[in-house]
C-alpha cells in the first residue's frame, strides 16, 4: 500500500481526530489562562490563607504526573459521585495541570514589573483601577508571553494524553488505525507530522504575533 | 464505596516494587538524555551550516511533537524494519531522545552564559581551545546548567507514567493492573499520586535550592 492510498483511506479519520485535538487544545488553553491568572494573583496575596491555598494547589498539580491526574479525573472521580465525560475530564485535568505552571509564570511576571512603576503611578495620583489597567497590566504581558508560549506548545503536546482516557482525538485515531492496519510508520508518522504542523505553522506564529502585539503596546518594537 | 485501608495495605508492597522500576526508568532515561543532549549540542556548534540547520530542524520536530506518539512510533515502527526491541529499551531511547533536545538547549544556554570576555582573555593568554573549554569555560558553565538539568530530571520522572502505554512495568502500569484485577481504581491511582508527590516535591525543592545557590554564587542575589 503506498502512502497516498493510506492517506486516501484514512486521511479523513485522522483529520476528524485533528479537529478534536484542536478543540481540546483551545478549551484547555482558555481554562489554563484563567486559572493561572487567578492562582498567580492568589500567590501574591497578603492574606496567608489565600496564599496557602494557591501554594498547595500549585505544588500538588506540579508535583504529580499529568497522566495520573487525567486518570484520577476520569476513573476515580466517579467513586465520589462525579462522573465527567471523557472530553470534560481531559480538558479539566489539562487546564488544572497547566494552570499550576501558568500561575508561577503570572506571579513571576507581576513581580518583574519594577517597583518604581507602582510608585510613579501612585505619585501621579492614578486610581487603583487605572494603575493596574493602564500601567501594570500592559507591562506584564511582554514579560509573561514568551514563557507562556513555551507552556502552550507543551500543552499541545500534552493533549495527546487525553486519548488514553478515550477521547477520540488524533492520537486515539492513529492508535486505532494502527491496530486495524498495522501500518505503524504511516499512521504514527502522519500523526507526528500533523502535530508538528499545528505547532510550527499555527500555534507558534499565533503566539509570536501576540508577543509582538504586547511588545508594541509598551513601545518595545523589537522582540 | 469509601476508601478501603485493608486493600491499600494489600497492594502497597506491589506498588513499592513498581516505584523502584519508575525510579530506575527515570534514572536511565535521564542518563541517556544527558548524553544525547551533548550530541545535539555538538550538532549545533559545528562550523558546517548544513549540519546546524538539520540539527535545528530535528530538535524542533522532536520538541514540538508529543512524547506519547514518539513512544508508539519507536515501539511499533522499528519492528517493521526488523529491529525488535523490548518495551523498556524503546521507552528509554524515546525518553532519551525527547529530553536530550531539551537538555541541549540547557547546555547551549549555559555556554552562552559564560561572558565573552573569558574567551577573549584565554585567546590573549594563548590557551588552546580544548584547554579553554576544560579549564575556563566548562567550570563556569556547569553551575549555570545545574538548575535546568535538575528541572528536566524531575520532568522525566513525571513523564515516566507514559511508558505504561507500551507495557513497561512501572508504577502507573502496576496501578492500572491492580485496579483492573480488583476493579477498584480509587486506591491504586490515589497511591500513585501520593507516591509521586512524596518523591517529586522534595526533588523540586532541592532543585530550587540549587538554583538559589547558583544565583548567589554568581552574585545575582545578595548573600
Count of individual beta strands of chain B: 0
Q: Count of helices of chain A?
A: 8
The CATH homology group name of chain A: MetI-like
Biggest sheet features of chain B: none
How many domains would you count in the coordinates of chain B? 1
* CATH T-level fold name of chain B: MetI-like fold
Beta content of chain B comes to under 5%
Mean pLDDT of chain B: 90
Largest sheet report of chain A: none
Helical amount among residues of chain B, as a percent range?
over 70%
Tell me the number of structural domains of chain A. Answer: 1
Order of helices and strands of chain B: HHHHHHHH
Query: What is the CA-CA span between the terminal residues of chain B?
Result: 54 Å
Number of helices of chain B: 8
The CATH first-level class of chain B comes to Mainly Alpha
Class based on secondary structure composition and strand pairing of chain A: mainly alpha
Mean pLDDT of chain A: 91
Structure description:
The complex is a heterodimer of chains A (223) and B (223). With 223 residues, chain A is mainly alpha-helical. Chain A has one domain (3-217): MetI-like fold (Orthogonal Bundle), CATH 1.10.3720. Helix content of chain A is 81%, strand content 0%. Chain A has helices at 3-43, 48-63, 66-76, 86-112, 115-123, 128-158, 170-181, 184-217. In chain A, helix 1 (3-43) packs across helix 4, helix 1 (3-43) packs antiparallel against helix 7 (170-181) and helix 3 packs across helix 4. The longest helix of chain A is centred in the first third of the chain and has 41 residues, at 3-43. Chain A is flat. Chain B is mostly helical and 223 residues long. Chain B has one domain (5-216): MetI-like fold (Orthogonal Bundle). Chain B contains 8 helices and no strands. Chain B has helices spanning 5-45, 49-63, 67-77, 87-113, 116-124, 129-159, 171-182, 186-217. The model of chain B has no long low-confidence stretch (mean pLDDT 90). The chains are: A mainly alpha (223), B mainly alpha (223). The interface between A and B is large, with 39 and 37 residues.
Amino acid at each position: 500500500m503506498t502512502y497516498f492510498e493510506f492517506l486516501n483511506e484514512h486521511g479523513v479519520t485522522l483529520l476528524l481526530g485533528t479537529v478534536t485535538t484542536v478543540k481540546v487544545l483551545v478549551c484547555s488553553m482558555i481554562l489554563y489562562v484563567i486559572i493561572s491568572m487567578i492562582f498567580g494573583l492568589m500567590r501574591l496575596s497578603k492574606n496567608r490563607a489565600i496564599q496557602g491555598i494557591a501554594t498547595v494547589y500549585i505544588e500538588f498539580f506540579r508535583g504529580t504526573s499529568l497522566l495520573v491526574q487525567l486518570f484520577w479525573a476520569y476513573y476515580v472521580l466517579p467513586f465520589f459521585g462525579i462522573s465527567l465525560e471523557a472530553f470534560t475530564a481531559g480538558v479539566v485535568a489539562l487546564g488544572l495541570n497547566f494552570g499550576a505552571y501558568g500561575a508561577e509564570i503570572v506571579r513571576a511576571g507581576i513581580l518583574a514589573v519594577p517597583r518604581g512603576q507602582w510608585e510613579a503611578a501612585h505619585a501621579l495620583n492614578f486610581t487603583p483601577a487605572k494603575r493596574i489597567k493602564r500601567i501594570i497590566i500592559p507591562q506584564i504581558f511582554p514579560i509573561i508571553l514568551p514563557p507562556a508560549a513555551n507552556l502552550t506548545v507543551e500543552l499541545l503536546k500534552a493533549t495527546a494524553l487525553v486519548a488514553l482516557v478515550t477521547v477520540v482525538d488524533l492520537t486515539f485515531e492513529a492508535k486505532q488505525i494502527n491496530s486495524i492496519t498495522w501500518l505503524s510508520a504511516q499512521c504514527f508518522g502522519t500523526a507526528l507530522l500533523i502535530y508538528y504542523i499545528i505547532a510550527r505553522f499555527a500555534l507558534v506564529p499565533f503566539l509570536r504575533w501576540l508577543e509582538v502585539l504586547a511588545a508594541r503596546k509598551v513601545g518595545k518594537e523589537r522582540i | 464505596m469509601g476508601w478501603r485501608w485493608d486493600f491499600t495495605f494489600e497492594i502497597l508492597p506491589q506498588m513499592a516494587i513498581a516505584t523502584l522500576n519508575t525510579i530506575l526508568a527515570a534514572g536511565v532515561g535521564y542518563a541517556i538524555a544527558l548524553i544525547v543532549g551533548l550530541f545535539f549540542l555538538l550538532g549545533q556548534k559545528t562550523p558546517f551550516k548544513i549540519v546546524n540547520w538539520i540539527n535545528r530542524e530535528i530538535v524542533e520536530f522532536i520538541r514540538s511533537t508529543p512524547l506519547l506518539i514518539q513512544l508508539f512510533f519507536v515501539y511499533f515502527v522499528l519492528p517493521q524494519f526488523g529491529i525488535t526491541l523490548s518495551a523498556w529499551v524503546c521507552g528509554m531511547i524515546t525518553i532519551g531522545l525527547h529530553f536530550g533536545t531539551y537538555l541541549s538547549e540547557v547546555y547551549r544556554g549555559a555556554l552562552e552564559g559564560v561572558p565573552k570576555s573569558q574567551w577573549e582573555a584565554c585567546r590573549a593568554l594563548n590557551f588552546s581551545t580544548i584547554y579553554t573549554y576544560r579549564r575556563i569555560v566548562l567550570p563556569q558553565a556547569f553551575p549555570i546548567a545545574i538548575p535546568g538539568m535538575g528541572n528536566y530530571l524531575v520532568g522525566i520522572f513525571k513523564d515516566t507514567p507514559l511508558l505504561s502505554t507500551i507495557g513497561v512495568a512501572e508504577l502507573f502500569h502496576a496501578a492500572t493492573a491492580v485496579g483492573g484485577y480488583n476493579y477498584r481504581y480509587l486506591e491504586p491511582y490515589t497511591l500513585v499520586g501520593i507516591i509521586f508527590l512524596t518523591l517529586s516535591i522534595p526533588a523540586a525543592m532541592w532543585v530550587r535550592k540549587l538554583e538559589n545557590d547558583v544565583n548567589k554564587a554568581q552574585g545575582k542575589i545578595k548573600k
